[in-house]
Amino acid sequence: MKYLLDASALLPLVTRRGKQLIVEASRENLVTTDLAIYEACNGLWKLATLLKTISLEDAVAVATTLKDLAIRSVIQPINFAKLDFSRTLKRAYKERLTFYDASYITIAESTDAILVTDDVKLQKAASKFVKTITYTDLESRLIY
What we know:
Elements: E1 2-5, H1 7-17, H2 21-24, E2 29-33, H3 34-50, H4 56-71, E3 75-78, H5 85-95, H6 99-111, E4 114-116, H7 120-126, E5 132-133, H8 135-143
Parallel strand pairs: 1-2, 1-4, 2-3, 4-5
Helix pairs in contact: 1-3, 3-4, 5-6
């Protein structure tokens, strides 16, 4: 099964599962956008700097793990060049989504992936076009 992770799913997945994903995700196909990796790392910065819920050292460790998982293709980044910009912008306009959120729907369609998101607005809009699940749903699928 192929799963497209948005940033709201990518960050908790790597934070909670870390390098265990190398084993757990071996039977699944996890993909994300290249920009979602930056967004997840920005979330780590926010957790460490503004919210102070994790240490800088922990944030760096998670960011390093995320990079390692992408380099090893455990989580495969999809380059923006593969995105149909015209289709995405039209969908963003019609569904009143950001281009960024609409890109997840376009990529999920073009790769036959299930969109994994905890963003309620995105999940509602995306469910018109692709199958969606939450991070919790994905985590339960990876464990078994």
